[in-house]
Amino acid sequence: SSRGPQPFVSPVTPLDVVKVRLQAQRPSGTGELPHPSRLWSVSYTKWKCLLYCNGVLEPLYLCPNGTRCGPWLQDPTRFTGTVDAFVKIVRHEGPRTLWSGLPATLVMTVPATAIYFTAYDQLKAFLHQQALASDLCAPMLAGALARLGTVTVVSPLELLRTKLQAQHVSYRELGACVRTAVAQGGWRSLWLGWGPTALRDVPFSALYWFNYELLKSWLCGPHTRDQTSVGISFVAGGISGTVAAALTLPFDVVKTQRQVALGAVEAVRVLPPRADSVWLLLRRIRAESGTRGLFAGFLPRVIKAAPSCAIMISTYEFGTSFFQRLDREPLPSR
Fold it and tell me: Is residue 63, in this structure, part of any structural domain at all?
């Protein structure tokens, strides 16, 4: 998802679901496997080889029966791209699955919007008043700090949303998964994935506001930035959101895989492994899937980020200028 508050949550939720599914799926196992390490172990059953990796148990596509294993190899949850994911999700799970996690998203949007923009406005005003940063750096610093606080507050809701979007589970199953995780790891487990989420969202917000102010100054000139039109804000916001979404995508992949692993261990009744660092997970994903694996879900993320950021910032600029004009108008005399 783009890392600003979402103005239109429902229409873009299917893109978010597809992005999470693409990021959460494991390598097919047909290629060369990495050297065994503490990250995973292999167990064998009849005609199957199961890979236990970072709390997730998945079958490797190895079978001694050759072509007779063809039906077993046709995994309907294996996606080859964005369109393929849309088609398979609708065909095998129903269209409603594309709106998985929508209630959690709606609940998360309200506090996220209030915290983010309130903190951003106050921090930017403080940096300008104290002359601590330039016109370009003040929005960047304010956006990064505001996003850090927002990520911390809404991280449990982000975790629930990711679980709902990655796995077609009911709210009862999700509740049992969360209760088990809390029993095993304490309340801190609800902030699982906070590290990669912060590494994704904080740079996203900083890059977004810096590029937005830079593009805005190019498009309308440095002397008229306070009177930016809605069209200029829309274009600058869309371009800035696209660039920020693309550059921070690897951390989005890490966040998704770490949060999806919550509760997956209950199915195999084993103790969860120690959470690996973000950098180790980045290296593991690159070793398993190559550099392409670090940018899984690129198309749906960018398609969602561009219009979302454009609409968000143009609405924000319009609302800010409207209320500023309202404040400057004299009160009517009685």
Answer: no
